[in-house]
Automatic annotation (TrEMBL):
Subunit structure as annotated in this protein's UniProt entry: Tetramer of two A chains (F13A1) and two B (F13B) chains.
Function: Factor XIII is activated by thrombin and calcium ion to a transglutaminase that catalyzes the formation of gamma-glutamyl-epsilon-lysine cross-links between fibrin chains, thus stabilizing the fibrin clot. Also cross-link alpha-2-plasmin inhibitor, or fibronectin, to the alpha chains of fibrin.
Family per record: Belongs to the transglutaminase superfamily. Transglutaminase family.
Gene that encodes the chain: F13a1
Domain Transglutaminase-like span(s) in chain numbering: 314-407
PROSITE patterns documented for this protein: TRANSGLUTAMINASES (PS00547)
Source species: Asarcornis scutulata
Entry protein name: Coagulation factor XIII A chain
Pfam families according to UniProt: Transglut_C, Transglut_core, Transglut_N
Active site: 322, 381, 404
Region listing for Disordered, in residue ranges: 1-33
Length: 736
């Protein structure tokens, strides 16, 4: 091979800066050239490396049924290479050209990662063979010798870098070191280890480890507080190429390899790279109901398609909303071995100046002034929790950490959020990094209705302290039940502890505007509330407004109902219903009034999640005081039915049938169906031009399930007139 010219060499050299001798080592994918012979000096003529100990073969025991993947809980990964968890011993066998003689032969192992391996950075790890393995520290010992082979037990450090390492065996000769060739078959992935007590992500409950690390299907709770809905999500962290795609995310985020043993750093950079804002990350968000040139967020059934598309195209995948960001983030965390769960906060505050109060400004009529009102209440918001110790915080703040990949506000100049200790949020200790004040506001803000008088004085009409963060939930361990975890984020509403946590948060600098400078004199003797009837998409329903006059006076109330079609983020698209009427309120009486909403009023403008938001305001004419209330509601959406035909046995063909009946009074056009089930079938897609009103579509798919055990099939239907249509089916695949 000819010697490269000097210009070639200059081109290959990465740019250096004045602060470091080596360029940054932030790509797991890049490699360096490792010399197969490191000569100590001049090599004598008669030297023949074949006279010395030589490696003939290395056995990695990397099959799913072999000891390493079984003991390390990595047998589910659809990946031919060795995958182990850190801080726990694994075995390899080395075949030499002759029996190994410990008295005279000397060899060692070298694990390398990245392009500039260095011992002090944990990116170059030489391992000498010793007599004992120290728990949680790098080391190797011989456990079996037979003929020309030795079997080694190798221990990795419980704090080592997580990623894909290259393995070399080095042999000492008097004239130099001889190494094995670069062989990608011996590459070893090292992951986090929730089973190892010294690991920062150690979780002591086996049932929880099975759920939060090994379960590849989960549930997303959505809808709203009065109409909770759920859908399954396929995480697919063990599917083909997903592990490499997750490691690529850390390369994309340019996380130094030396920082990749630290779950805090990994979560922080991942929360930024999951969304495409400011770093061309995985998913582009879209909340405006137009999803041209992309997939509607509601159509995805899992994370695999998204991660694989990003891994191959390196361009943001369109489109996502909060549960999509959270679903993909959960796949990333579980894939690397960090215990993680997806949680939903109902009535989540997006408080854009973090003053712990959501300001709704009313005009003279008592209607919400859209120009002044900047804050919004999301019907629900999904984020993730990752389990880890927090050595960077005082004792007691480890455990679940809130992390959020949905781009809402910037943190240190990038769209990212967390990790924030859930325990610190509960107690109001929001001074501890990262982004605790923002998460605290999401679950604790007050809703304040105020109105400006003609003379400029601001009058607060109502303060609602219980509307936000009403319910926080996640999927149960080992079940599909919904489990409430509200009390992990906040004390009982109205309790002494809750007040104290709030005061603590305010003391630590969460801005809470005083209401002193505004006049706050609510109308105490009349109460107003309203109820929205539960309804199926396409039908009429009613809103019932009730007044209770607790005084001995007669009042008249001018009442205004505004019905809005909203995004689930609480942002209004348009007002589809306006209705005003005046009512007489007799002393010490309750009275109820119905307002009918017909399907023709709302169907043409309906958005994805079939969400409505109603504001009712009433002015008591005799006192000029205003009563205000608001509620979100969602319509019931029809679901898909999934059936199977044939016996369900691994490696045998079976049929899956998806059915759907169109409930609307109109024909659905350009309908896309998706179907997936980890271990049963890869994602399938089918387009239908039209589904007439009341007619039923039937789609049959043949597949050959790969893995026995309890599996889940998940389907979605999507078209412009109807989104968020799901179906699922749990099936038991038998062993052949």
């Amino acid at each position: 091979m000819s010697e490269p010219t000097s210009t070639d060499k200059e081109k290959k050299k990465p740019p250096l800066n004045g602060r470091r001798a080596l360029p940054s080592n932030n790509s797991n994918a890049e490699e360096n050239e490792v010399p197969e012979m490191d000569a100590f000096g001049l090599i004598p003529r008669g030297f023949n490396p074949k006279d010395y100990l030589r490696v003939v073969d290395i056995h990695m025991f990397k099959e799913p049924y072999e000891i390493n993947k079984q003991q390390h809980h990595t047998d589910k990964y659809y990946n031919p290479k060795l995958i182990v968890r850190r801080g726990q011993p694994f075995q390899i066998q080395i075949d030499f050209n002759r029996p190994y003689k410990p008295e005279t032969d000397q060899f060692w192992l070298e694990y390398l990662i990245g392009r500039y391996p260095q011992p002090n950075k944990g990116t170059y790890i030489p391992i000498l063979v010793g007599d004992v393995l120290k728990p949680g520290e790098w080391g190797a010992k011989i456990i079996h010798k037979e003929n020309n082979s030795i079997r080694l037990s190798i221990m990795s450090s419980a704090t080592c870098i997580v990623g894909k390492f290259r393995l070399y065996v080095a042999i000492w000769t008097p004239f130099g070191i001889i190494r094995t060739h670069r062989n990608s078959a011996t590459d070893t992935y090292i992951l986090f280890n929730p089973w190892c007590q010294q690991d920062a992500v150690y979780l002591d409950d086996e049932k929880e480890r099975e759920e939060y690390v090994l379960n590849d299907v989960g549930i997303v709770f959505h809808g709203d507080i009065d109409e909770i809905k759920l859908r399954s999500w396929s995480y697919g962290q063990f599917e083909e190429n997903i592990l490499d795609a997750c490691l690529f995310l850390m390369d994309k985020a340019e996380l130094e390899l030396s920082g990749r043993g630290n779950p805090i750093k990994i979560c922080r950079v991942a929360s930024a790279v999951i969304n495409s804002r400011d770093d061309n990350g995985v998913i582009a968000g879209s909340w405006d109901n137009t999803y041209t040139y992309g997939v509607a967020p509601s159509a995805w059934t899992g994370s695999v398609d998204i991660l694989l598309e990003y891994y191959s195209s390196k361009q943001p995948v369109r489109y996502g909303q909060c549960w999509v960001f959270a679903g993909v983030f959960n796949t990333f965390l579980r894939c690397l071995g960090i215990p993680a769960r997806l949680i939903t906060n109902y009535s989540s505050a997006h408080d854009n100046n973090a003053n712990l109060q959501l300001d709704f400004f009313l005009d003279d009529e008592g209607q919400v002034d859209a120009k002044l009102t900047k804050d919004s209440i999301w019907n629900y918001h999904c984020w993730n929790e990752a389990w880890m110790t927090r050595p960077d915080l005082p004792v007691g703040f480890g455990g679940w950490q809130a992390v959020d990949g949905t781009p809402q506000e910037t943190s240190d100049g990038m769209y990212r959020c967390g990790p924030a200790s859930v325990q610190a949020i509960k107690h109001g200790h929001v001074c501890f990094q990262f982004d605790a004040p923002f998460v605290f506001a999401e679950v604790n803000s007050d809703v304040v209705y105020s109105r400006r008088e003609k003379n400029g004085a601001q009058i607060i009409e109502k303060i609602d302290t219980t509307h936000i963060g009403k319910l926080i939930v996640t999927k149960g361990v080992g079940t599909d039940e919904m489990v409430e975890i509200t009390e992990e984020y906040k004390f009982q509403e109205g309790s002494e502890e809750e007040r104290l946590a709030l005061e603590t948060a305010v003391m630590y600098g969460v801005k809470k505007q005083s209401t002193q400078d505004a006049m706050y004199q609510p109308q105490k003797d009349v109460e107003m509330d309203f109820q929205v009837q539960k309804a199926v998409l396409g039908s009429d329903f009613k809103v019932t407004i009730t007044f209770r006059n607790k005084s001995r006076n007669s009042y008249t109330a001018t009442t205004y109902l505004s019905g809005n079609i909203v995004f689930y983020t609480g942002v209004t698209k348009n007002e589809f219903k306006k209705h005003s009427f005046t009512v007489k309120l007799e002393p010490l009486m309750s009275s109820a009034f119905d307002v009918i909403i017909t399907s023709s009023e709302y169907l043409s403008d309906l958005l994805d999640q079939a969400s409505f938001h109603f504001f009712v305001t009433a002015r008591i004419n005799e006192t000029g005081k205003i009563l205000a209330a608001q509620k979100a509601t969602v319509l019931e959406i029809p679901s898909l039915r999934i059936k199977t035909q044939g016996e369900m046995v691994a490696d045998k063909e079976m049929s899956v049938i998806v059915e759907f009946t169109n409930p609307l009074k109109k024909t659905l056009e350009d309908v896309t169906l998706r179907l997936e089930g980890p271990g049963v079938l890869k994602t399938m897609k089918k387009e239908f031009r039209q589904i007439p009103s009341n007619s039923t579509l039937i789609w049959e798919v043949k597949c050959i399930p790969k893995r026995p055990g309890l599996r889940k099939l998940i389907a979605s239907l999507n078209c412009d007139a109807l989104r968020h249509v799901y179906g699922e089916l749990s099936i038991q695949i038998q062993k052949p």
